[in-house]
Fold:
Amino acid sequence: MGTHFHLSVATLITTLVGAAAVIAWRIRETRTPVSARKIIVPPLGMSTGFAMFVMPAFRIPWMWAGGAFVAGLTIFSYPLLRSSRLWRDGDVIMMQRSKAFLAILVALVAVRLALRGYVEDVLSPQQSAAVFFVLAFGMILRWRVAMWREYRRLVSVR
Structure:
């Protein structure tokens, strides 16, 4: 068995474990009040992933990064935006869990895996990881900015 096979299996397992963690986190997130910190910290924490670009193997052309970021902002953030709603419950802000959220997350993972198979035929595994990281960051950033705006609106309406 070649190195490419081992990398593909490792990538698949990592993607599935990551998806399971996100699903568990989102379910837990809907059971506790939302705070400004809970909205802001995930994209800030994720932004540390840009350190991967220090390593030459992960570097991609600016055009690819821009395309991935715009795709995350415009296309892949849309299901998250549509499935996330904040609401006031007394003195706290809560996130309403969408019945479609699990299906949306599974579909996003399936699209990612399908695209990854195609992309990895053209790019190295490291460049593929970089492209998908930038795409995911664009997706999460837009979603969290929208949540932040909604949170601020709800906090100001007392």
About this structure: The chain has one domain: 3-156. The mean pLDDT is 85.
